Amino acid sequence: MRIAFIGGGNMAQALMIGLQQRGFSMQHITVVDPDTTKHTTLQTALGVTTADSATEALLAVDVIVIAVKPQQLQQVAQTLAPLLNAQLVVSVAAGIRTADLSRWLGGYPTIIRTMPNTPAQIQSGITGAFALPAVSAAQRTQADDLLQAAGEVVWLDDEVQLDAVTAISGSGPAYVFLMIEALSAAGVALGLSEAQSLQLSLATFKGASLLAAGSQTPIATLREQVTSKGGTTEQGLLSMRQHDIHGMMQHAAEQAARRAKELGDQLGAQA
Ligand SMILES: NC(=O)C1=CN([C@@H]2O[C@H](COP(=O)(O)OP(=O)(O)OC[C@H]3O[C@@H](n4cnc5c(N)ncnc54)[C@H](OP(=O)(O)O)[C@@H]3O)[C@@H](O)[C@H]2O)C=CC1
Ligand SMILES: O=C(O)[C@@H]1CCC=N1
């Protein structure tokens, strides 16, 4: 499979590192990004070919992954439109709907909209994906192979659900990083050194996540197994409930999903 990435920023790099870790032939990847300061790093660290603008020859690939910011997508799509020739187009942009991208690409039919996340770079990502009906079974398999290099893939039948995926797993790593920062800061406030508090917090998130992911036991039961009657956890959880942890997470996800829809509405309204 030959791949062209349009945009070589954070998300594209996370996907490419995932592909590299999986042993993908990196010489089969071209990255188009006008920010030439990124080119040397992309070439030396990842072994990919770089270019500052797209040409028909550079886009003679099987899959084009568009990984620019949603605000840049319309302009990028209009530049790509005359250069396309039946390649599969995969978008990772938050909020932007396939109908709008297809229109910007001149009525292009073979598009898969996805929402990956940055743990892709250690093959521990998860991607939500939605394919337009014109995408062939072979192209869907190609996209699945590409995305599986980054971790799990969840195929959706309803594109609207991608805004929820964005709010949960697309943005989710940032929520988790914030929680690690917060737990670690709490440890420092209780007298631990910064280094040891971070070590304890990181190992706790990692251990609890691995235990939960690898166990048949319901998460609530795993939580109860930590919570000794009359013990310490009970007090910690009580405080978290008093501060409405569920409401906080619900509100955060709602705000992220609202923003994904807003990006789709506002940017998708462009001709
Ligand atoms: N970061 C994340 O965790 C996730 C991001 N996404 C999506 O991925 C997309 C990219 O996000 P992210 O990687 O964070 O953003 P970045 O800004 O890191 O990457 C975008 C890159 O595209 C470049 N670019 C701008 N214009 C063009 C152009 N005309 N042709 C080619 N490249 C161009 C940008 O250059 P310059 O900086 O000079 O503008 C930049 O290097 C977004 O749509 C986002 O919604 C999806 C899931 C998770
Ligand atoms: O914050 C953003 O808009 C992108 C999409 C999901 C993660 N990062």
TrEMBL record:
Any one GO MF term held by the record is: pyrroline-5-carboxylate reductase activity
Q: GO terms for biological process?
A: L-proline biosynthetic process
Q: In which pathway does it act?
A: Amino-acid biosynthesis; L-proline biosynthesis; L-proline from L-glutamate 5-semialdehyde: step 1/1
- Tell whether Amino-acid biosynthesis is among the UniProt keywords: yes
* Record localization: Cytoplasm
The chain's coiled-coil residues are none
Q: Which Pfam families does the annotation name?
A: F420_oxidored, P5CR_dimer
Question: Known catalysed reaction(s)?
Answer: L-proline + NADP(+) = (S)-1-pyrroline-5-carboxylate + NADPH + 2 H(+); L-proline + NAD(+) = (S)-1-pyrroline-5-carboxylate + NADH + 2 H(+)
Q: Carries keyword Ubl conjugation?
A: no
Q: What class of enzyme is it?
A: oxidoreductase
Please list every transmembrane segment annotated in the UniProt record, as residue ranges. Answer: none
Q: Where is the Pyrroline-5-carboxylate reductase catalytic N-terminal domain?
A: 2-95
- Which family, according to the similarity comment? Belongs to the pyrroline-5-carboxylate reductase family.
Please explain the role this protein plays, according to its UniProt record: Catalyzes the reduction of 1-pyrroline-5-carboxylate (PCA) to L-proline.
Q: What is this protein called?
A: Pyrroline-5-carboxylate reductase
This chain's source organism reads Methylophilus medardicus
